[in-house]
Inverse folding.
């Protein structure tokens, strides 16, 4: 991967976390993501699933801040993301994904209509509401159902998330 490609991918990852697009990642981005997912599936914030989702979003933010908020101002700038988070994501994406597990687990519970696991269609709705273009969301969600049984498992989502986050830096 050349450095332009790396820059492009890092910018895309940062934009994924910077949900409101104001140039830094903070707690509000994570709670906004939680609210958007709940609204999409008609789940209230005070329900058990809603409370789990907000708790997962807070844990995800705390994990992100612990890794990347170098100056401790409760904001992760693009520079902090690149120097702090991106390096850890690359070195150990699986471990980083564990930070996201409670959030992803709670999102799955919200998107899972019948307890058998979310369908690719439900996963695509989650991705769309978090800002993924519709066509791309459909393709990603279909790929998440690796064995094609029409259901997506938590481990498949976690592995995909780790893969997405682990961007290789250029050698030079
Ligand atoms: Ca933001
Ligand atoms: Ca900061």
């Amino acid at each position: 991967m050349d450095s332009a490609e790396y820059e492009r991918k890092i910018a895309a990852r940062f934009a994924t976390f910077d949900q409101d697009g104001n140039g830094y990642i903070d707690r509000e981005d994570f709670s906004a993501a939680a609210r958007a997912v709940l609204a999409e599936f008609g789940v209230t914030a005070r329900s058990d699933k809603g409370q789990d989702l907000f708790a997962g979003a807070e844990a995800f933010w705390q994990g992100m801040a612990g890794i990347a908020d170098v100056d401790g101002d409760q904001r992760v700038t693009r520079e902090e993301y690149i120097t702090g988070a991106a390096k850890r994501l690359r070195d150990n994406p699986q471990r980083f994904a564990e930070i996201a597990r409670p959030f992803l687990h709670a999102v799955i519970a919200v998107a899972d209509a019948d307890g058998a696991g979310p369908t690719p269609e439900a996963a695509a709705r989650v991705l769309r509401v978090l800002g993924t273009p519709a066509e791309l969301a459909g393709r990603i969600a279909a790929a998440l159902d690796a064995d094609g049984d029409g259901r997506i498992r938590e481990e498949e989502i976690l592995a995909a998330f780790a893969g997405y986050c682990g961007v290789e830096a250029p050698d030079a």
Notes: Residues 48-68 form the longest helix (21 residues). Strands lie at 24-25, 76-77. The radius of gyration is 16 Å. Residues 69, 71, 73, 75-77, 80 surround calcium ion (ligand 2) (CB under 6 Å).
